[in-house]
Design goal:
Layout lengths: L1 E5 L2 E4 L4 E8 L8 E6 L5 E7 L5 E3 L7 E6 L4 E6 L8 E7 L3 E2 L3 E6 L1
Parallel strand pairs: 2-11
Antiparallel strand pairs: 1-3, 3-8, 4-5, 4-9, 5-6, 7-8, 9-10, 9-11
Length: about 110
C-alpha cells in the first residue's frame, strides 16, 4: 500500500499550484481521500476531503481557493490551489479513509 504525493514547490503569493497523490495497493474508488497539511510549528490539519460519490468538504480557510478532485481510473487525487498566500506554506499529505498516509509534499509560498 502506497500513497505517493508530488507536485509541491515554491510559488509566489497569489500564484497557483496543483499537487497530486497516486495510490497503489488499495481499491481506490472505495476510499474517501483527503489532503491534510502541517505548517511549521503547527499540528496537521484537514484541508479537503472527497468521498466516493465525489462530494467534497473544505476547511473554511481554503474555500473558494482550493479544489479537490479525484480520477478513479488513475487512482489519483488532486488538490488545485489558487490565490495562494504565505499562510498556505506547509507539508501537504494525502490520506485514505482517515488511516493511510502518504509521505507529504512541501508547498512554500513566498511573500
Amino acid at each position: 500500500v502506497q500513497l505517493q504525493a508530488f507536485g509541491g514547490g515554491l510559488v509566489p503569493a497569489g500564484g497557483s499550484l496543483r499537487i497530486s497523490c497516486a495510490a497503489s495497493g488499495i481499491a481506490f474508488r472505495t476510499y474517501r481521500m483527503g489532503w491534510y497539511r502541517r505548517a511549521p510549528g503547527k499540528q496537521r490539519d484537514m484541508v479537503a476531503t472527497i468521498n466516493t460519490d465525489g462530494s467534497t468538504n473544505y476547511v473554511d480557510s481554503v474555500k473558494g481557493r482550493f479544489t479537490i478532485s479525484r480520477d478513479n481510473a488513475k487512482n489519483t487525487v488532486y488538490l488545485q490551489m489558487n490565490s495562494l498566500t504565505p499562510e498556505d506554506t506547509a507539508v501537504y499529505y494525502c490520506n485514505a479513509n482517515g488511516i493511510l498516509w502518504g509521505q507529504g509534499t512541501l508547498v512554500t509560498v513566498s511573500s
